[in-house]
């Protein structure tokens, strides 16, 4: 009997549980990422303070060139919302800011302006941070695949999400995971192409990761053909234990939808799950699905050995 692939890195459900140390490290990584993303807003606020200092009264702020968007932001209008407003409405919003908040602040109106600018930018930052765990998780998984291919000395192409073009990988592959949306390599005589976040017609939903038996040059047609799909997986990079169960429920539902969509086809689709926050109860459920064959493979994203093992399995499918 052939030993199932997950046994190479998992001995039981306990191996899937995220340890406290990994959770702590994950929160630290998120904090560092939040600070990195906040840096441009802090610099903008410093510039705003410098320009606004030229105004003797709050109303004079409207005469200073170049700070109108910042005044609008301080009024509580986000960049997205401003696109739906007419110029008159924007002026009204800024006048409201001046009358209700800046003038009552007296001589400290510039500081009040900067605080309110940062308040709105903070909301923008909070919105961008909601999915940062998923983004960081995807990057880590992508880097593990790249490393597995590099160690096997397997040449590959990768899809640049910025230019939407396929690029042949060079020896200098530093940071390509920041922009990688797809990857292509050869396994024996077969072409393998994987894509992140692909809307699959057979499922009618977005799938976190799909591996197909095709050349990247034919992906425009290939992704519509169910018979070319080799593996599909769900990746949940959020580290907060409070959201672990919800992430698993979402992934579980998605994976069931995938299996159902492909069940009528004469295929043997491999499915897998990778999660950063895995609690004891969900670890038990994942383990049972692995043993009964519902899931083909699984790994804890915070355990590099498990991720590496899963990627080695993946590139050899």
Model description:
By secondary structure, the chain is α+β, with helices and mostly antiparallel strands. The protein has ten helices and eight strands. It has an eight-stranded mixed β-sheet with strand order 2-1-3-4-5-6-7-8, with helices on both faces. A hairpin with a 2-residue loop joins β3 and β4. α6 packs across α10. The model has no long low-confidence stretch (mean pLDDT 92).
Please sum up the structure shown.
This protein is an alpha+beta fold and 317 residues long. The protein has helices at residues 20-52, 68-74, 79-82, 87-102, 109-129, 132-151, 219-222, 244-263, 280-292, 304-314, and strands at 156-160, 165-168, 180-187, 190-200, 205-212, 229-236, 270-275, 297-300.
Feature tags:
eight-stranded mixed beta sheet; 10 helices; alpha+beta; elongated; 317 residues; single chain
